[in-house]
Automatic annotation (TrEMBL):
Any GO molecular function: exonuclease activity
UniProt keyword Hydrolase, yes or no: yes
Alphabetical list of PANTHER family matching this protein: RNA EXONUCLEASE 4, RNA EXONUCLEASE REXO1 / RECO3 FAMILY MEMBER-RELATED
Gene Ontology cellular-component terms listed: nucleus
Region of interest (Disordered), ranges: 114-140
The entry's keywords: Hydrolase, Nuclease
Gene3D superfamilies in the record: Ribonuclease H-like superfamily/Ribonuclease H
Protein name, as recorded: RNA exonuclease 4
Amino acid sequence: MPLKQVQRRIEEFLCNGEAMWKIRSPKAGKARILVGHHLHPLLQSLHLQYPSFMIRDTAAYPPLMKTNKLSNSLKYLTQTYLGYDIQAGVQDPYEDCVATMRLYLRMRNQVHQREDYPQASDPRNRNNFAPSRQSELERMSPEAMLAISRETTYAIKETLLPYGYGWE
């Protein structure tokens, strides 16, 4: 099946009969919420653009990133939050889909506090090394780097947090 035809079928399903331009507003009537794990690369590979407020990506949901501040694998999230193993041996897409939906259903009704994730440019980030100072960082000894680090040091892509924190 040609890519254009695949794109059209996926858009028809997600938009549920509405035009794509109509669902760009938060009052997207009949459009479907897209639930998945690591959806951004999949949507990119299909050259699809879907409104971020209609996407629930378990890899980018901050309460599920509490242990790592980066996205965790679906296998880890399923074991941690649902209590069973997936992807033992062969990876089954259906099993992954069911696990993702169970994670979503478990997390969507919980009240989540918004956590403060300062960006690299935030003045509160006292260890902000500009690219021009990269060589200075590379010359530092491990002990010196440990001395300037802090327990809450983490990296987050700005693109991981495009939508709200509460899943409805």
